[in-house]
Amino acid sequence: MASLFQKFQKAVGSLAKSPTFAKDPRHLQFEADINRLFLYTSYNRVGKDAGDADIEEIIDIASKASLADQQEQVQENIYSQIKTFCALMDDILHPSCKSTEEPLNSPTEKAAGPRRSGLSLAVGSNSSMKVSPGVPKTKPLKLSEVSQRIKDLNSYTLELKASQVPHKEAGQGLFINGEANVGAIIAFYPGVVYTPAYYRYIPGYPKVNAHNPYLITRYDGTIINAQPWGTGGETREVWDGLSVPEFRPNIQGADTGSDRVWKMLSKPLEATRLGSNAEVLERRNPLAFAHYANHPAKGMEPNVMVCSYDFPLVEKDMRMYIPNVVFGRGEEVKMKRFGSFWFKSGTSGSNVSDNPVLKTLVLVATRDLSNEEVLLNYRLSNAKKRPAWYTPVDEEEDRRRWS
């Protein structure tokens, strides 16, 4: 495995010196990330019993395959893991499946939710919802019981507890309970998915992250808001992600001319006009906690990385375990960006894709993990003022990501 990392680091180093770097640094960083994900997830799929020849073949393919081919393989590798996870969840929760264990006697749940997450200062509280008539019946297990059984079957689960990152805003951290191999899916990033066409419906727009650090952006501009998900729930239910009240910022002081222009162009739109597409989701998903991962402090290293994943909506038997809903009508809309603003420039043709997908995001392990805190490089833009606690893991990567 050491040879894999050594050769990978050498490959990334040579890639950074490519002439394309000066022309399009953001695309270079995207390629580098896909290359890393290809290596990690392919190694995971081959398994720990892989020999040197298998590792050499993975590295060779990574150095020769096109970006499109590597992206496709990463998607297949992630799909394979998610399919296994969904099968395990079915074994645990489906009423017709006989469990090998009696229901666990879990400790009494605390009345109050976790203090804070790594990506936030606060999160909305979660209230239990009654199962709707159209929701399939499942075993009456609590989230804590499902989590323990996933660990028994899959060697690891996740838990929230006081972060080991040494600053006061770290709050609750995300920890892996058990052991996971490099390239494994550690967590799903849950919540409401917004394409650029619907940015103005994100609560708090245009300053959406002022009071909601539970937002994350994919390379394609898709934003996922995890704040409505919170810490999940105790049932399988119809969920639309609109349970958190819309945030309306208080803007004090007189408006300058530029402020008035900003407000005119950036006026928030009422979410009730469109709303999220409600779906039957399993709120007891023990891996839907990616939004609690902390950024590593100085002297610490990240051990996961983000991976955009397009879930095929034809997989209806797996859909309830993907903790996301789409905001809006879901049509493909072409967008153009001018400075800080996105404008519609027409549709992309058909409103319905032949292969519709749900744009999601997962965290993938960049090394073997064992009973430790999950740490994610936030890659905050160095073009804006960053929090005092933020220590760049790689300043150059931050610059390329947001160039």
Automatic annotation (TrEMBL):
Gene3D superfamilies: SET domain. The lineage of its organism: Eukaryota, Viridiplantae, Streptophyta, Embryophyta, Tracheophyta. InterPro entries: SET_dom_sf (IPR046341), SETD9 (IPR040415). This is Uncharacterized protein. PANTHER family: C5ORF35, SET DOMAIN-CONTAINING PROTEIN. CDD domains: SET_SETD9.
